[in-house]
Fold these 4 entries.
Entry 1:
Amino acid sequence: MKKWGFSLLAAFALVLGLAGCGHKSSASPAKTIRVGSMASDVEIWQHIAKSKEAKAAGLKLKVVSFDDGVQLNQSTLDGDVDVNAFQSYAYFEAFNKQSKNGKEVALGTTYLEPMGIYSNKHHSLKAIPDGATVIVANDAANQARGLELLAKAGLISLPKDFNSFGKISDIKANPHHLKFKAVQDNTIPRMLKDADYGLLANTVAYQAHLNVLTDSLYHERVDQSTRKNVNILATAAKNKDNKQYRKLIKVYHQPGIQKWLKQKFGGTKVDVQKPISYLEN
């Protein structure tokens, strides 16, 4: 009987031990979130990936660098990337409208990188030479954004229904007879030596060692007119309710992250904490 009792106890202990081992193995580590990004945003998310803020939120990130926005968005839809961090809401809308392979959803806002009007020849916009040459981006979102900035500066006027798909041919009035040249945006800085003015997205300006707040003649501000230009985090529509992905927005806006951003980029990535509904209205 004693032998049977010891055997039963040993067997019971073994079962408990195996159960304990099974319980431990079922606790899987946090899934690595693949964040696709471009240009200076790659550096931002590499910093966030190593930050104490990401660790405190239980986030494990892998940053994947891209050179082309359309490719990055498509990789997000294909699942090669979980979340992307590079595009304005206007670019996001334009992509979704043209995409035939699925749609993205916006998870939240990050910043506004002001677009600016730059010149190597002129020191202000007060005396615009008649027939001045203006270099703008040839992609739809940035071209429309640049034209809206020129309109806000009082250099041209646009129709009331002008939107993020607007183009040069939509200009309603051009009192200074400005001559427009549309080129790939990353070539604009070196073309400023020959043109009168150039419209630069801040990512391109930053790469050319220009600070939009101090080097541009005129630039965007955070207001209703620029809400479509606010940058976002986006993911495939099927991931819209993923709580881990949405944590990225909260981490991005943490004071420690924002302090680093301000120091690193000279204040040119203006923090914007708004609901997506603000961009949609």
Entry 2:
Amino acid sequence: MIELKSAEEIDRMAVTGRFVGELLAELSGVAAVGVNLMDIEHHARRRIKERGAVSCYWDYSPSFGRGPFRNVLCLSVNDAVLHGLPHDYVLRDGDLVSIDMAVTIDGWSADSALSFIVGTPDPADVKLIEATEVALEAAIAAAKPGGRLGDISAAIGAVAHSYGYSVNNEFGGHGIGRTMHEAPHVANNGRAGRGMKLDPGLTIAVEPWLCRTTDKIKYDADGWTIRSADGSRTAHSEHTVAITPAGARVLTLRPTPGDASAAPAGKPATAS
């Protein structure tokens, strides 16, 4: 069942989304050469607790994975692209890191992800990350009221293919609102004009992810971490988006560098 949210409910989701966006931006600054992934995980745990938020990942038990997920972040490095388990790994120069997180505040959820490079960037990695970001932008632009879900999927696929990448459709975006995963599924490739109608009030997480030289994946022994089948590098970008009468509203925007209006994650902005 798909629940359309009211304007007030979308505003409440936006409160959660702002926190998610701010914390992701903060975590990308914490990540650096020489930093342990577990330090990033524990930093996020502290911030989430301070805010009074609840991680959507903790104790998550889908059909895949081995046992409940007992972390608040998915931290995926290099050839790992989705559901990476935080573990004792010290970041090295040139590592490509993807951070994915979802939390609930006052009963409303938001989910977002970003990829970045620590230390010296490889141009091929920069291109890969850019492709996911441009695909996400195209998907958001296609998320128009009265359109079709396939418009979003087709926009993602078109960008991926224009960059020379193939698309894996086993995992994609999803509805979100009172819980992290709701209907509908949002595929990362598809045909425009097909699928359910995009009505105002629909809230979805849109998340293009790509592997550099394959569209095949494999799982680590932990049952969670998903990697490119050929060991090539990967990237992942995601925002929570609401369909409104005026168009798509991104609920998980991250503060831009130098944005004085952005408060540190977990703290309210003060009036000037």
Entry 3:
Amino acid sequence: MAEVPTAMMIQQWRRMTFLHWRYPVDDVRPLLPEGLTPDTDDDRVWVGLLPFLMDEVRPPRLPSVPWLSTFPETNLRTYVRGPDGGTGIFFFSLDAARLPAVVMARAGLNLPYRWSRMSMRTKGDLTEYRGSRFAEPRGAGYRLRVRSGEPFPEPELGPIDHFLTTQYRLYTVVAGRLVSVDVWHPPWALYRAEVLELEQDLTTAAGLPPPHGAPLVHSSPGVRTRIGLPRLVR
């Protein structure tokens, strides 16, 4: 994909872990806004839980502010097709540890950000992510310990690996209208990873059943991204 010509935000996404489960389409479809349909794989749809470190968040041509621009974030997302024929991501939730970032994202793009108490600790190839929402009565959250392994050789990566990690558009609803936002980043350097511990109820908080079975796992050191301007989907 060509680089976004006009970016409203530049970000670094670091120490990313991708966890994905397959869900029946009927579990996901009712949670999507009008105009979006699940992007299916063999009559199933993928749901991803992605914890990472957001870093160097800034508008173009402006410096980042150290405390404000670096914080843990965790996304719960699925993959959709829009009425414009495009494909992309729809977020069920985005947890972040900085209240100003939550407020701005909700106000600007109506993204379902939640202010959460979060941490990310790394030691060698081990990473531990933790999160718990402040405002929800039961404190929906997660704990994940994962060990990163060797890089995936490119011949071992199949279409589904690329599909789950090379999405360049998100959809959201602003003022009752469906909009899309393009995102540019280079290809992920994907590594093998092993889940050592996982507890989470973000899926049930989003209205999904608990996932079944072990997730498909990838990890990556990260990428630099450019976030484009929102556009009305016609």
Entry 4:
Amino acid sequence: MKTSLSPGAADALLFDIGRVVIDFDLARTLKAWAVELGSDPSAMMMRLANNDTFHRYETGHVTDAEFFAAVRDVLGLRLSDDALREGWNAIFIGEMPGIGPLLARAAQHLPLYALSNTNDAHVAHFTEHYAHLLVHFRELFLSSRIGLRKPNAAAYDFVVREIGVRPDRIVFFDDLAENIEAAREHGLKAVHVRSSADVAQALDQLGLS
């Protein structure tokens, strides 16, 4: 179901970062660690994603060192923390095609915010390498900093309170259907982003030209 938008229908725009502002590909991390991985690295990475340490890392309850120790344990690696961090940050490809001008255009009309599930190592990397994109945002709500992850209800409640406008006056952009559905359940307008064209279309519908 697509969200119906119209000119003047928003007081704030809320963006996910991964695959909405910055593109990434897990295969890049797998390639960086491939020398230590077995014949089915994707299955091994699923074991990591399902590990409680990963979720605690994304809510700021686990340090980089503790997370990388868990990576070594779960995936059977013998890489150093530095090598694991380098591979972990290799996941980033670059800015999503066309998103830079769209953010600049939107920021001329409304305040922009970000809500992203992420971790300290990635935050340190993308805030340095993609500062030219992040400058458009009034505030970044990052899971490892706020202690809350999407699609948990508390994450949306926290952000709505911090932004200080009614949820139905916030338009949220995310690439994952579960996050979109959860946002809509909490009263936000939400746009499922498959490419920057979806962002452009939403801005046009909002009259932000």
